[in-house]
From TrEMBL:
First-listed, main subcellular location of the protein, grouped into a coarse class: cytoplasm
UniProt keyword Hydrolase present: yes
Functional note: The RuvA-RuvB-RuvC complex processes Holliday junction (HJ) DNA during genetic recombination and DNA repair, while the RuvA-RuvB complex plays an important role in the rescue of blocked DNA replication forks via replication fork reversal (RFR). RuvA specifically binds to HJ cruciform DNA, conferring on it an open structure. The RuvB hexamer acts as an ATP-dependent pump, pulling dsDNA into and through the RuvAB complex. HJ branch migration allows RuvC to scan DNA until it finds its consensus sequence, where it cleaves and resolves the cruciform DNA.
Keywords: ATP-binding, Cytoplasm, DNA damage, DNA recombination, DNA repair, DNA-binding, Helicase, Hydrolase, Nucleotide-binding
Domain Helix-hairpin-helix DNA-binding motif class residues, every copy: 73-92, 108-127
Organism name: Roseovarius albus
Gene3D superfamilies registered for this protein in UniProt: 5' to 3' exonuclease, C-terminal subdomain, DNA helicase RuvA subunit, C-terminal domain, Nucleic acid-binding proteins
Gene responsible for this protein: ruvA
Name of the protein: Holliday junction branch migration complex subunit RuvA
Length: 225
């Protein structure tokens, strides 16, 4: 599995780029938002990638962050959402707004993507809502990486790097609180409201990781009744 690819952009199209890696051209499909973030033809780029394997085709999809890649993978797990529809959702909303829409159950935001009807949008929210805290934790973590887009060796094609070693439990919990607070404020909650929820959750669940802390804080912040 090719987890990351780096090389020189040979040409750009409306939905993909051709990346030259040591004389081999890789066709990488990207969302409109990702394409806009890439450098010009002739410059170097690095993208996290996902390989879609079907009986009649092999397709590489490229992403600037691991969070974007993870959301694309999860979106494709929903019935009726293929690779093209997942790219449309990511291109319309971006990873942060996708996290926000799914965590808050805002299927109308998902429906704004081209080709996504109301039933599919509701299915996306219903099926992925429990997954949102985990992906949001990836984005809130200081260790969340973005593939560099400059000064990248043209011959570099490597697998997705392994996760860094875990920190001690006390430090990990303190970091989890900060990351959960960051994720909640990104969702639009007031800092004071988010902080109160995180403190309460941390007090009741001292061993909770970031994703569990986000999930429990969202539960406590949800409207009652």
């Amino acid at each position: 599995m090719i987890g990351r690819i780096a090389g020189r952009i040979d040409y750009r199209a409306t939905d993909h780029v051709l990346i030259d890696v040591r004389g081999v051209g890789y066709l990488v499909y990207c969302s409109e938002r990702t394409l806009q973030a890439l450098p010009r033809v002739g410059e170097h780029v690095a993208l996290y990638t996902d390989l879609l394997v079907r009986e009649d085709i092999l397709q590489l999809f490229g992403f600037t962050t691991l969070v974007e890649k993870e959301w694309h993978r999860l979106l494709m797990s929903v019935q009726g959402v293929g690779a093209k529809a997942a790219l449309a959702i990511m291109g319309t909303l971006g990873p942060d707004a996708v996290s926000r829409a799914i965590a808050l159950g805002d299927w109308n935001a998902v429906k704004a993507a081209k080709g996504i009807g109301p039933k599919t949008a509701q299915r996306v929210v219903n099926e992925l809502k429990d997954k949102a805290p985990e992906v949001m934790a990836m984005g809130a973590s200081p260790s969340a990486t973005t593939a560099p887009v400059a000064d990248v060796p043209v011959d570099e094609v490597i697998e997705t790097p392994m996760a860094p070693p875990k920190a001690p439990a006390v430090q990990e919990n303190a970091g989890a609180q900060a990351e959960a607070l960051s994720a909640l404020t990104n969702l639009g909650y007031a800092p004071g409201e988010a902080a109160a929820a995180v403190v309460q959750v941390a007090g009741d669940n001292p061993d909770a990781g970031t994703s569990d802390m986000i999930r429990l804080a969202l539960k406590s912040l949800a409207p009652k009744g």
